[in-house]
Design brief:
The chain is built from 13 helices and no strands. Helix 1 packs across helix 2, helix 5 packs across helix 7 and helix 5 crosses helix 11. The longest helix has 19 residues.
């Protein structure tokens, strides 16, 4: 039995028996079985499970694929690729199917080329001699080639170290990837979940009580700011 199959079998048994496995969290419990089961039916057969369990696992993976393709994962996939610590290698390292990797790369390329890549410079009539015209044409062409190749150059470059601050990394490499950096600012600045905003609403409910329902918006905003700054250690 190969290593991936052994890991999947161990995890599946842990889930079935509701016992802790070697994984650190519930999310990672599902991670390796999904990758293993989705790659090939042979891995399933290697688990030595009975026919009913094998069929149930296949149905579960097919259902996962069906709904995964129906979700809008663009924000997450673009953010994943623009995370200089991960890039496409994260998907390859975790054995994502090739069709998903290709789709992710195509989606990122399409968004970049449509919204962020520099547009072709329109020809304008400039009175100059032939040597000057050739020089301007060469410089413009070289700039377009370098700019359009930003995404490819970024993907081929080495990944950043695991503990790298991604936003600071993009700030340091902004001159190297100017247009791609703008895309990174837009996507990496979006919260991955709504948990933080939900906490703000819950905290605001403690400020705007029934006894203080007539507080002005400016007052509520000021109280929320002071509360956050105090908890963050910005106020003594």
């Amino acid at each position: 039995m190969n290593l991936a199959a052994q890991q999947a079998l161990t995890t599946l048994k842990a889930i079935e028996d509701n016992e802790p496995s070697n994984e650190n969290s519930g999310g990672s419990l599902i991670h390796k079985p999904i990758n293993t089961l989705s790659n090939s039916d042979q891995n399933l057969r290697a688990l030595s499970i009975n026919e009913e369990e094998w069929e149930a696992a296949i149905n579960a993976i097919n259902k996962l694929k069906e709904y995964y393709n129906k979700t809008d994962t663009t924000l997450y996939t673009v953010s994943l690729i623009l995370d200089s610590r991960l890039k496409l290698e994260y998907m390859k390292d975790n054995e994502w199917e090739k069709c998903w990797i290709d789709k992710t790369k195509n989606d990122v390329s399409e968004i970049y080329n449509t919204l962020y890549a520099p547009k072709e410079i329109q020809n304008t009539r400039i009175e100059c001699n032939s040597s000057d015209e050739n020089l301007v044409s060469h410089i413009s062409k070289q700039q377009r080639i370098e700019s359009i190749g930003e995404l490819d150059r970024y993907l081929k470059a080495d990944r950043a170290q695991p503990l790298t601050n991604v936003l600071k990394w993009w700030k340091l490499h902004e001159e190297e990837y100017p247009h791609l950096a703008n895309m990174a600012k837009d996507y990496l600045g979006v919260p991955a979940t709504s948990a933080s905003s939900e906490r703000i609403f819950s905290s605001a409910a403690n400020v705007i009580t029934y006894d203080r329902a007539s507080l002005a918006p400016e007052t509520v905003r000021s109280v929320m700011y002071l509360k956050h700054w105090y908890r963050s250690g910005l106020l003594a």
